[in-house]
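Reader question, answered in our methods column.
A reader sent in the components of a multi-part assembly and asked whether the whole thing could be modeled at once rather than chain by chain. We filled in our standard form and ran it. Here is what they sent:
COMPLEX SIZE: two components
ENTRIES:
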Amino acid sequence: MEEIVRFTLNGKPTAVIGDSDRMLLWVLRSDLGLTGPKYGCGVELCGACTVLVDDEAVRSCGLPVKEVQGKSVTTIEGLAQNGKLHPLQKAFVEHDALQCGYCTPGMILSAYSLLRRTPRPTEAQIREGLEGNLCRCGAHQRIIAAVQAAAVEMAGGA
Amino acid sequence: MADQSFLDRDFTDDQLGLPMTRREVLALLGGGIVILFVGGDVLAQRRGQQLPTDFNAFLRIAEDGTVSCYTGKIEMGQGVVTSLAQMLADELDAPLDSVHMVMGDTDLCPWDMGTFGSMSTRFFGPALRAAGAEARAVLLELAAERLGKPAEQLVTEGGFVFVQGSPNARVSYADLTKGQKIARHAKAPLKTPEAFKVMNRPTTRRDAHAKVTGEAKFAGDVRPAGMLYAKILRPPAHRAALKSVDASGVNTPGVRVVRDGDLVAVLHEHPDVAEEALAKVKAEFAPSTLSADLTDTSIFDHLLKVAQEGEDVSRGGDVKGGEANAATVFDHTYLNSYVAHAPIEPHTAAVQIEGDKVTVWASTQTPFGAKNEVAETLGVPPANVRVVPPFVGGGFGGKSRNLQVVEAARLAKLTGRPVQVGWTREEEFFDDSFRPAAIVRIRSGLTKEEGTEARIAFWDYHVYYAGSRGAEHFYDIPDHATVGHGGGWGGGPESHPFATGAWRAPGNNTNTFARESQINIMAVKVGVDPVEFRLKHLKDEKMRGVLTAAAKQFGWTRAKLGDGRGCGVALGIDAGTYVATMAEVEVDKGTGVVQVKRVVAAQNMGLVINPEGAKIQMEGCVTMGLGYALTEEIHFKGGEILDRNFGTYHLPRFSWVPKIETILVEDKHEAPQGGGEPAIITMGAVIANAIYAATGARLLQLPMTQARVTAALKKA
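And here is the structure of the entire assembly that came back:
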């Protein structure tokens, strides 16, 4: 359906005009020029395209853009504030929690959403929370450690 | 097609030595100061048969002190973006932070065969280190002249040359090179490990910041102005010829449909719009010429039927005589299915043609190969084609082929616009090559039927379609033969129904699974602990060293821990690196589900440039290896691939990942060996042996799916 969809993208008011049934992933990448959300499978099975919609992790390859009308969308490009890395980003760097880096934006945003719901997750909860995100390089063990470290930092240390 | 002969190699020990193409390197370096240390015809040297000997091809020091490091290698997660920078920084005595990596750019970087075979550190590393060492020696000479002191009284550190004992009397590398055009060579030895300041130190990834912020660009993120996204019409099955096309139903505004022979594509400025329009193209294909009887279960009989004569990989003693003396004989056949590379980034390329100049941004492990393929496709001189690989989102051998690059080049020419081809996941599971289905038959025997005195009497090993890498055993066996059939991964023309190719440690996963399973079967038969049995048959100190180290860390006492719980061990050699792996598994006997609880991997890879990077690669190998061991296989019927996405093709997930402990058994004075592949080769056998210890069920086929485990449990 042709319509105007207005939403907040990484803190800025944004409007796109056109077929609002198109998937958010392609509108973000192709119409709005972002590169953080990645295509991996196209059917919500890998998590590479994950973005935050009102702070909840969503697979943007399966979400029609009309669904974000009036909402707030955050991609990996919008996570660091004023050049300061989010604790998750910092922890991923410090723990070498990535290799090729292609799944990393989706991984970090899924972890962000997990920590919002469960601020001090157990290891089992982290595994469960990220189960739908695929990493082919095998950085899983370090990703778990990074999420744990970020949780500690976000909770104010200790 | 351009020279793809490398695809048939097993990358065991390839030296970098194919002809180089002409590059106007010095003209292209632009900006900054080029230090010309050599007066001769540099370009003539670049056209030679080897990596350049002139170190200017590897590095450049700019006015601001930035050291650019030029390598034909690409970064796909394996971490050479860090370890190569460490090598140059250390030999040059420049700060690691000052090194800027320029990777895989065919206009700027020295020719390279490709990033595969764990060869970057082994074969490119020494050349890069030598370049850094020589540049440092020349800088010392220049500083001696500038400071009026003999070179012997000078020291280098952090990008400066100092007068020894007078830290204020110094000159920076940037100052020395500023505005100068100098032709000079110097003899300089490589540093010994005792002198290392940057190498052999655990160093975190240098690309991590870019990758956690989204700044890191992959091929799909490159969008030249006016670019169209192409979606290509694909056949429903391999070897199904296109009969007719009707695109009259495509009425989407802005969509273009082009056809060039069998290449039919729909293009639009948005990829999803192009894909939707492609669905409106009506096409008729002839049925696949492959028989529907050829499936993932019948394939092994087919492969054995068409197998070529074997060729000796190694041989010693008298196998027939050994068998005659054996008290007991073991004859087993090991199978493994086709496996996908499945990088999360599918094959992607963007091509821009401006006049007679062509620029290519591609996810490729072989940028110089891609350059030649594009030149041939478009009929332009290779010198007019520049391939710029951004970060590559995983390769594992699959991105050594550049089909998507050729497709993008053809479509850019046909449309007169820059074109990006980004394969869908379904295309990735169809048009990428697969690790070949393979068969290993081992006949072996023991000198006694039981007891600790029993020794392996003979070993008769035949591998089909996996190549020779990792086929040779390393045990003390008097009479043995290792024979390879089937011409490596490619096989003969009528062997595989679709493209096969290198898959992380090609061949070695197949060979190590078979060998280490057979060894375990024999140990079990005579009632000897599998670690002890191996030690009894190992003379190689390096292999004994990694096995002992793994056993110590693991706390190995016995294989069987309890009902449904057990431990396995497996050894292997790949890319010059020795690996010993131990694993503990828990098997649910009701469902056949295998949970790997803990893995310890010990590795001797000689000198380790970046111990942290090496450990990450080992962890990645262990994790990725869970997939081919437990679930990953391509199902097919004739030319039709039945697994086209992650819903049925199961990659390892967080819930599968065991506690992984890695040990580097350091040999600092030995040359560095491969790091990206070795630790994956043992994963099939170590899990198979642990399942046996836990349940008494012996799995002879990979992957060890729930169904196969359940079937084996019934026979146990």
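What stands out: Chain A has a mean pLDDT of 97. The two ends of chain A are 51 Å apart (CA to CA).
Send us your own complexes using the same form.
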